[in-house]
Write a structure and sequence with these properties.
411 residues, conserved putative lor/sdh protein from methanococcus maripaludis s2 fold, Helix Hairpins, 6-stranded antiparallel β-barrel, elongated
């Protein structure tokens, strides 16, 4: 009996011991979990992060669009009279001024026509002078009742007829002078000549010829036609109604190199219903000829400047199920999860509408190891955002621009 009692006691003791060991192991695992995640008081200690400071500055708001460079004026030079090209007076690619000689058509036939018209007028003027003398004598004879009224009226009609002939001769002279002037082809605008399409010695015609002599394009100033989404029309109109002249930047295809700075010139009077876009045109001085007709460029239209905006590096903004947030470093080196409202992100900067204040320290890199309340250790290898920079008006931050929401991005 005592033998069986000992066996039962041994079995019960084994079961109770196993149960206690299982409970004790689970409790140790729970207490060790926060330490393995780098939580506050964990065995791994503070989490190394890169920190930055929310800065305050004036942020220019741009609308972005894709544009095509167009010459301010383009003139196709064609002959206005038929004849042989007597002289080509320009060099391809030459800058010309209004009134500069471009080409000369043989003027001899037109000079001959002018001389003939002048001679015809002289002949008719002589006949008119004789007819007027006769009319004066007939007036005296009519007064003395020597000449009949019919003969006097006939002579007066002759004078009127010759007077009209002289006027017609003057019109012919004027026409001959115009035709002769057309043989001298001058530039109507300031611009640059293109490739010559007619060589000296060729016969040209005022009508029927498909080739022009040359095309002249005005490059200074120059225009860029570009498009923006139709929803941007309202804020552009608000600025223009307020009397503000909108500035425009022309950027190269890399969207970084500024080619020229100009002004918005015109908004098209209708929206393209097929694409839902609005056509606009900006004018640029193009002093260095960085813009060339037919070139594709990115246009940045400055619509306004947001004064005293709060700006942080774009990497500060994190995304979660409840929206955007940021890790804010408190005075005790612990982090707080702060919901933020992001106005826009541009060129590595995020403009914050709400949730952050200038001067607050935020986590720029290393967020994936953090939880609310985690303690952090700021890495010495910080970015330039680790200290607030002062701009020209005493506010911190750089001068890089932001893109307006809803704007179409360039390529």
């Amino acid at each position: 009996m005592g033998k069986w009692l000992g066996i039962v006691v041994l079995i019960v003791g084994t079961v109770l011991g196993g149960f206690w060991f299982k409970q004790h192991s689970a409790k140790n695992a729970k207490t060790a979990a926060p330490a393995s995640r780098g939580g506050p008081g964990g065995a791994m200690g503070p989490v190394p992060v890169v920190a930055g400071v929310a800065t305050q500055k004036d942020v220019p708001i741009f609308l972005d669009g894709l544009g095509t460079v167009q010459a301010f004026n383009t003139v196709t030079i064609r002959p206005r009279v038929d004849g042989q090209v007597f002289k080509i007076a320009f060099v391809e690619g030459q800058d010309v001024q209004a009134g500069d000689l471009l080409a000369q058509i043989d003027p001899a036939p037109f000079q001959t026509q002018l001389d003939q018209a002048v001679a015809k007028q002289a002949q008719d003027q002589a006949q008119l002078a004789a007819a007027r003398s006769t009319l004066e004598r007939d007036a005296t004879l009519l007064k003395d009742k020597i000449l009949s009224q019919q003969d006097y009226d006939t002579q007066k009609a002759t004078v009127d007829q010759l007077t009209a002939a002289v006027q017609a001769d003057q019109a012919a002279i004027n026409n001959a002078k115009v035709q002769l002037a057309y043989t001298t082809i001058s530039s109507p605008i300031d611009g640059r000549t293109g490739i010559r399409q007619v060589d000296q010695g060729n016969i040209v015609h005022a009508t029927g010829d498909s080739n022009a002599i040359v095309v002249i394009a005005q490059l200074r100033p120059i225009t860029v036609a570009f498009t923006l989404p139709e929803q941007d029309l309202r804020q552009i109109q608000e600025q223009m109604i307020g009397g503000h002249e909108l500035s425009a930047l022309a950027l190269d295809r890399d969207n970084r190199t500024t080619l020229d700075e100009g002004k918005l010139a015109v908004i098209d009077n209708q929206i393209d219903t097929a694409t839902g876009t609005l056509r606009l045109k900006a004018t640029f001085p193009n002093a260095n000829l960085h813009l060339w007709p037919g070139q594709f460029v990115n246009i940045r239209l400055l619509v306004r400047t947001q004064k005293g905006g709060t700006v942080v590096p774009a990497s500060v903004v994190q995304r979660g199920p409840e929206g955007a947030y940021a890790f804010v470093i408190k005075n005790d080196s612990s982090v707080e999860v702060r919901p933020v409202q992001v106005a826009r992100i541009e060129q590595g900067e995020a403009l914050i509408d709400s949730g952050l204040k200038p001067g607050e320290q935020v986590v720029v890199d290393g967020q994936y190891k953090l939880q609310p309340g985690s303690h952090v250790k700021i890495s010495p290898q910080n970015t330039a955002w680790s200290q607030p920079a002062q701009n020209g008006n005493g506010k911190s931050g750089s001068n890089r621009p932001a893109r307006a929401s809803g704007a179409s991005a360039g390529p």
